[in-house]
Specification:
Blueprint: H1 11-19, H2 27-37, E1 42-45, H3 52-66, E2 76-81, H4 85-98, E3 106-109, H5 115-123, E4 126-131, H6 133-141, E5 152-155, H7 158-163, H8 167-175, E6 182-187, H9 192-201, E7 206-209, E8 217-224, H10 230-238, E9 246-249, H11 253-265, E10 271-273, H12 279-291, E11 296-299, H13 301-304, E12 314-317, H14 324-331, E13 340-347, H15 352-362, E14 367-368, H16 371-380, H17 392-396, H18 423-431, E15 438-440, H19 442-459, E16 465-472, E17 475-482
Parallel strand pairs: 1-6, 1-7, 2-4, 2-5, 3-4, 5-6, 8-13, 8-14, 9-11, 9-12, 10-11, 12-13
Antiparallel strand pairs: 15-17, 16-17
Helix pairs in contact: 2-3, 3-4, 6-8
Length: about 475
């Protein structure tokens, strides 16, 4: 197939494709459209950016145009599920664009929108409903929608939906659908969980697998910079002449907002998109980025899922991801459609383990934009346990034995528990002649324990503290020293 006309699509659809500038089908469209026009179930493996939305939208629109029916209140003929609001919005926009001249009704159900408006929209009945799983179940539970007349059921980005924990929601929604329907699944990967779901919901599906178009080149590099200096490094990167439109990834929502404020203070237009933003704010940010009014979009990984914006020249990992596969998903937002792209990652000393995991996954070392700083950083942060990193002086120094673990009765493991009181204490004093026993009040002990509890929750690794209980005439006191 070299043109869309060869598929036998309706004239209004062909005119819409021409207006959108689509002249030649992509590989996934060539493979999927003929199968779907026959009404078969489909299991498609394709990445975002391959044209898969049109691959299922065009046959659906063609079917609805040929078989027009009166819509029943609170019902829809086609149901499309997407994992995130942004992806759901993009899918609906594609249906609106390709079906503009057909007079079909489309709707969108997702979080962040007033329920009253969605109820009124659903009450009229819809040809096509695009929804996120969580909000869809909400409107069904409230009696605003019934699924017993769905003719086509589409699951887009199935792997992402499972990653976000929607598997039970999907099964619940599928149980409400009629037995006679066409099913369309699209996923970037095919782990066992998705294969099992597809086996349960699809009937004799055609399997179509198309690899993503390989970019001409993604120039990947790493800048070794400590956390306090990342802001200045980012400003320097985004003010380069080659930087036209870029995605900046933050590990946290708070961090994304902080980056936007910092860029704004430096005179750079940027918007943030994450789960704490209202739907109106997210749409405003996304539309500003897509239209070019803002050339920087700061995002968290979940909020950025499914975002497909052409001509992204740069991806900046302000924070390195702790999951190496996430790095691959992030940088895949640039270098689309054969264009060249740039991926820059900031790496602090504490993020070096993340960098090593990414390099292991890729099977190659990332080029350091400032290797001198990276080498210096390595010198100050040697890998623990490597004997080649020890100096000659360290080699001659005797190793101190590790302290014993507390036993159930409070005595130190390895201590002579049958010895007279004070014997073990004398041995500890001898090992630390310069340290006199420190007696802590009960208030200090309480603060100590609270601090340790906080540290166990990620606020830093506490020094190991050994305490030994002593009973005296004055009551109970505690002796403490760092081990």
């Amino acid at each position: 197939m070299t043109s869309f006309a060869e598929f036998g699509l309706s004239k209004p659809i062909l005119n819409a494709l021409a207006r959108e500038g689509h002249t030649t089908p992509t590989p996934i469209q060539k493979a999927a459209i003929p199968v779907l026009l026959k009404g078969r179930d489909l299991l498609g493996l394709a990445q975002t950016g391959t044209g898969k939305t049109a691959a299922f939208a065009l046959p659906i629109l063609n079917h609805l145009a040929k078989d027009r029916r009166r819509l029943s209140p609170r019902h829809c003929r086609v149901l499309v599920l997407a994992p995130t609001r942004e992806l759901a919005l993009q899918v609906k926009e594609r249906f609106d664009a390709y079906g503009a001249a057909q007079g079909l009704s489309t709707g969108l159900v997702m979080g962040g929108v007033a329920f009253g408006k969605q109820r009124a929209m659903l009450h009229r009945g819809l040809d096509i409903l695009v929804a996120t799983p969580g909000r869809l179940i909400d409107v069904i539970d409230k009696g605003a929608l019934k699924l017993d007349s769905v003719e086509v059921f589409v699951l887009d980005e199935v792997d992402q939906m499972l990653d976000l924990g929607f598997i039970h929601s999907i099964r619940k929604i599928a149980s409400m659908l009629p037995q006679e329907r066409q099913n369309i699944f699209f996923s970037a990967t095919m782990p066992p969980a998705i294969a099992k779901l597809a086996s349960a919901l699809l009937t004799d599906p055609a399997r179509v697998e198309v690899a993503a178009a390989k970019p001409l080149k993604i120039d990947e590099s790493v800048i070794f910079v400590e956390k306090p200096n990342k802001a200045a490094a980012l400003v320097s990167v985004v003010k380069q002449d080659a930087f036209k439109r870029g995605l900046v990834f933050s590990r946290t929502k708070h961090g994304a907002d902080k980056i936007v404020r910092m860029l704004s203070a430096a005179g750079v237009s940027a918007h943030a998109i994450h789960g704490n933003r209202s739907q109106a704010q997210r749409e405003k940010a996304f539309n500003a980025f897509r239209s070019g009014k803002a050339n920087i979009l700061v995002a968290t990984d979940i909020a950025a899922r499914g975002i497909d914006v052409p001509e992204v020249t740069h991806v900046v990992n302000y924070d390195l991801p702790n999951v190496p596969e996430t790095y691959t998903h992030r940088i895949g937002r640039t270098g689309r459609a054969g264009a060249a792209g740039v991926a820059i990652s900031f790496c602090s000393g504490e993020e070096r383990p993340f960098l090593r995991s990414i390099e292991k996954l890729k099977g190659q070392r990332l080029t350091g934009a400032n290797d001198e700083q990276g080498d210096a950083d390595k010198a100050h942060h040697p890998r623990p346990g490597k004997s080649e990193n020890r100096s000659d002086k360290d080699r001659q120094r005797p190793r101190r034995k590790a302290g014993g673990k507390p036993k159930a009765n409070g005595a130190l493991a390895g201590a002579n528990v049958d010895a007279p009181a004070g014997a073990n204490r004398k041995r500890r004093k001898k090992a630390h002649p310069s340290k006199a026993p420190t007696f802590l009040s009960n208030e200090t002990i309480g603060a100590d324990r609270a601090g340790e509890k906080g540290q166990q929750h990620g606020e830093g690794r506490p020094d190991r503290v050994r305490r030994r209980r002593h009973r005296g005439a004055a009551g109970r006191q505690f002796s403490s020293h760092a081990g």
